[in-house]
Specification:
Chains A, B, C, D: This is Transglutaminase family protein. Chains A, B, C, D: Pfam families: Bact_transglu_N_2, Transglut_core. The structure is a homotetramer. Chain A has four helices and 15 strands. By secondary structure, chain A is an alpha+beta fold. The first copy, chain A, has two domains: about 80 residues, Immunoglobulin-like, CATH 2.60.40.2250; about 170 residues, Roll (C8orf32 fold). In chain A, the strands form four sheets. In chain A, strands 1, 2, 3, 4, 12, 13 and 14 form a seven-stranded antiparallel β-sheet that branches. In chain A, helix 2 crosses helix 4 and helix 3 crosses helix 4. The relative contact order of chain A is 0.23.
């Protein structure tokens, strides 16, 4: 079992008379990701409404903030009991057997225009046997072709831009991998967390974007940017792409924060059942699949 | 009350060993749209699984078809008791009060890149008082600027393309209107049905795409293409945009159908409570809002 | 020496009161391409002004046509004495030694956005030794990745679209190859002619677009679509891309022609010095470089 | 007559073993723009080759620089005797009468995709009588719709982006105006100089991009960004768009300069024939049209 302690501190300066925020920085509730304790502080103090998306376990905090400075501080300790599987035993799910709630993840989205990549995806990966290894091949293809470079892209950059320009940050790697998976009818979604284990040379600890792919009834984790250690990813949110799963969506006027986000994450040990996150060859999932409904 | 009888006949020639289809041609179940009777025929005969999306009431029929010809025939009779409202009494919902399940409809999507239209939308519509009339102004703006021309666009055409090129079909009008609404934080979604009342000069009866906008707790109908009579729209599906709400999504090889889709729709009268769909100035909705869950 | 006889017949129906045309269907005058005889017929009869571009040798025929049908017929017999060279002896020209009039061909243009392909081009071809063989590698890369399919693209399709979608016609292959060359600072331009030697299975004889690359003081011919025999290419025009070098640019209203273009080209033999165009491994040029000016 | 004294100081740090530059910072030679004196200093000292484009009068300085710092300093004093004309007397030139060398300026280019704006341009400006006033209306349309904001765009931003996003710097205003003119078959080109008379609130004196439109045998100056005084524009270069007319094109590795460009420009007076540049309603040109060739 992995136990992680994380903290997030965000500063804003609200300009307009008031401003609405939707934050997605609370640790998601999944069958394998359990919050042991958490604390939220808002300065100035105000009531924050936290809503649970019952399908995905994501939690959204909505604030209506007055003009002036706003500081959001969140700390949590989380236990993750990964579903781990031998990649060789994980197959793709034929379209005819995909659950209805998974189908949207094979359709194109704002930043993942998979509809335009059918020929490319088939030419590059169509000959590989379906299964986890094929998805890993897609992940490696993206990882080898795209250069990680901070501040090289912006909020309009899409998978097609990254395919062409071959540079980006973690969200761009994720978008391109997602688009290629969907072009092969493999459901893929965007996930957010913190870059546990990232090389300090890349900068201070930051939010991270990675990929979850639906294979054999689980959403498995892939990290095409290769900048961090997937076993240490605590999931905040998931979505079709970054349009759905920003850590903060702001409706109103906000000045660039006086301070950048300050994040920390560390793995806890000390009891026999706790291990440190490490790079591993097992397939990992923190999600046993959507809850049964209907 | 409106009573409509419709029929749809679709032909395909499946090329590959087999092919998966997801059809969304069943009349949606909503609190105001009731199916009196319906019939489905598949030739060659096979079992079809029809799944209900409990949130939106859309119904998806999934087929796994063998190589060879496939004919899908569907007939239904539907009663619609519209929610009708005086436009002057309908306001916009502030972001801070939008239900969580409505929030995704203010985010950009594949064909509705609202994130790039913030300045344009604010310059053109920011000075108008919030409410139904402002959304109607957006609808009229799109309607006046875009030329309806059959076959002028394709499956990759997005709202930005339509803004630039100013030509398109009903789905393109819908995408542009949706993108402009979202740029103003007004939730808007894509809806599909049949073009009841369309001028025969535009061609034979066809599938139709239009817009639903979330205002005052209802999803109100808008038809930016102006080619048909909204009061006669029977809803099949809704989605973020055409990527989510195609009447048919095909996974596999299919030859262009030997025959085009053949659709018919007519309004029934004969009893005192039945009226014909007409153009009206009232705001119309076939959806009382998402069901209460959680 | 190659001798080719060609004919072109084009039909238009001018709709508006009048319409301006710029045709580029006359055989270009170059030091190695000599017109033995040619004839032009316009129906209805009118005066046609043919202007020579003294830099490139292209000839532009401008017509101001009245409403009604217009037929343009052109026949020519041309002799080509190719400059032929052993590819192993052909180097690239360093930017610092490129003539000023060649510099524009390393800059991006409407359909060849080389500025966005620097990383991709360097990653794929940066390790190859500069020279003709590297350009041939670019040509082969494009040829292998893109599928030739009639009517798969339109007049707005650019090199980036072709890179993403991997399908197109000869002009799309040319645009992608040009963009990749320029991304490596290798001057490349768009050339037009007739698809001598094309497989009849691809359709009737048609206009052709190919590439000329500036290497060692000559503009060498490359055909990334691989659909025809370069030794049989008679050059009509050159330009930065298809925006500059259309066979017909039309200013005004014209109905889709009642008949498609009708082209014919054949190689003549019968005297000892005349040979048939064949695929060959020699580098070919019909252009000894721009005339010395200033 | 206008007399301007200008100075430019540019710093680079060449990283790679060596680097090629093409500078276009010398005052252009035109029939109405005369260099009284000029001086160039390169540090470290080296030979610089300055080539004249005989068609446009632009001068290109090419350097092959070794690794290490490079400073380029240029000063000039220029006399401009504008061609001035009453706008009411200036008409558009019908396509059928455009000189061949002007035709390329009605075709689309990298950043000015006029081919996609035909309907929009015709809808917005097609009803206006042809002539200078219509071009002025295009200039005003762009000026009113686009917000000037430093650093809001980058080197890939095109006219379509500016049309959609409605923000940019002078080069973006110029690209959009050029694209709209060409969509109406009005030849338009990109011109570069210094922002004489710009409001210091916009930042220090900088390079400027503006538009020249071919009307009645002259290339008339338009400044859609409205940030400076056109009568004080000294022309350095012209081109199809910014791809052709950068003040510096760099082939090789260069670090962001330790110092930003330092530009100064001032108008000289003191003799009776010298006047200060002012905003005026006359049409202005520094170019009597291309030299007669052929």
């Amino acid at each position: 079992m992995i136990r992680l302690r994380l903290s997030i501190e965000l500063d804003y300066l609200v300009l307009s008379p008031s401003c609405d925020f939707v934050f997605n920085i609370h640790v998601a509730h999944t069958s394998r990701q359990t919050v042991r304790e958490e604390a939220l502080t808002l300065d100035p103090c105000q009531r924050a409404e936290v809503q649970l998306d019952p399908v995905h376990g994501s939690r959204y905090m909505r604030l209506h903030a007055a003009a002036g400075p706003l500081r959001v501080s969140y700390q949590a300790t989380v236990d993750i009991r990964h579903h781990m599987e031998d990649p060789a035993r994980i197959g793709e799910v034929p379209v005819s057997r995909l659950p209805v709630h998974v189908l949207p993840y094979v359709y194109p989205s704002r930043y993942c225009q998979s509809d335009r990549l059918l020929r490319l995806a088939f030419a590059e990966f169509g000959h590989l046997p379906p299964g986890y290894a094929r998805v890993q091949a897609i992940r490696d293809w993206v990882h080898r072709r795209v250069l990680f470079q901070s501040n090289s892209t912006n909020s309009t950059t899409s998978a097609l831009d990254t395919l062409v320009e071959r540079v980006g940050v973690c969200r761009d790697f994720a978008h391109l991998m997602i688009a290629l998976c969907r072009a092969l009818n493999i459901p893929a979604r965007f996930a957010t967390g913190i870059d546990y284990g990232a090389d300090p040379a890349l900068g201070p600890t930051d939010f991270h974007a990675y990929v979850e792919v639906y294979l054999g009834d689980h959403w498995y984790i892939f990290d095409p940017s290769g900048t961090a250690i997937p076993m240490g990813f605590v999931r905040f949110g998931t979505g079709r792409d970054a349009a759905d799963a920003a850590f903060a969506t702001i409706f109103g006027g906000v000045q660039s924060p006086p301070l950048p986000p300050r994040l920390r994450i560390e793995a806890l040990t000390g009891t026999p059942d706790l291990t440190l996150p490490v790079h591993c060859t097992q397939a990992l999932s923190t999600d046993d699949g959507p809850p049964v409904r209907q």
